[in-house]
Amino acid sequence: MIIRRKIERPEEDFPMAPMIDMVFLLLVFFMCVSTLARFEKSAPIDLPESGQSRVADNFQGRGILSLDKEGVVHIGPQTVARDDLPGYLRESLARNPALKIQLRADRQTPYADIKKVLQICAQTGAYEIIYSTYQSR
Fold first, then answer.
1. Where is pLDDT greater, at 77 or 124?
2. CA–CA gap between residue 89 and residue 93 (Å, rounded)
3. So what's the pLDDT on residue 40?
4. What is the spatial distance between Cα 69 and Cα 101, in angstroms, rounded to a whole number?
5. Strand, helix or coil at 106?
6. pLDDT at position 105, please?
7. What is the C-alpha to C-alpha distance for residues 69 and 16, in angstroms, rounded to an integer?
8. Dihedral angle at the C-alpha atoms of 22, 28, 31, 35, nearest 10 degrees?
9. What does the domain layout of the chain look like in residue ranges?
């Protein structure tokens, strides 16, 4: 008589080490992205509405200037003095000659302040200006 022994096979384990590594990497990635997104946030501006505005397909090659209602210039979250603006624009144009300036002006900003910024842009050679507005519904 043949007695067969039942061979116990070990339970197949799911490898957890690579899974833990992936979770850790995703956690680090999202922490970095959220920090950078907070840094890139621009000044709070109440843009005017326009029935002619369109959402652009391509946002590459743009420098964003924001003007608040007091006429203070912001580049991202950082406030910039008007005297420093030409140097910043020249430096940006040297790095990217096809630079387009996206001007975000608050709806309560006096036109005289907008005109001064436009003149600074023209003096430095930044001739392509994109005006930011909300699409009216």
1. 124
2. 6
3. 55
4. 19
5. coil
6. 86
7. 55
8. -140
9. 49-135
E strand or H helix at 122: helix 111-124
Query: What are the beta bridge partners of residue 102?
Result: 64, 130
Q: Specify the 3-state DSSP secondary structure of 76.
A: coil
Q: Give the number of other CB atoms < 10 A from CB of residue 37.
A: 9
Which residue type does 63 have? G
Query: What residues pair up with 79 in beta bridges, in sequence order?
Result: 74
Q: Which one, of 79, 69, 80, 77, lies nearest residue 41 by Cα? A: 77
Q: What is the pLDDT of residue 26?
A: 93
Partners of 63 in the beta sheet? 101
> CA 83, CA 80: separation in Å to the nearest integer?
8
How many other CB atoms are found less than 10 A from the CB of residue 119?
10
For residue 127 the two structure tokens come to 């001739």
Q: Could you write out the DSSP letters of every residue in 13-68?
A: PP-HHHHHHHHHHHHHHHHHHHHHHHHH------PPEETT----S--TTEEEEEE-
Domain 49-135 classified CATH 3.40.50.300? no
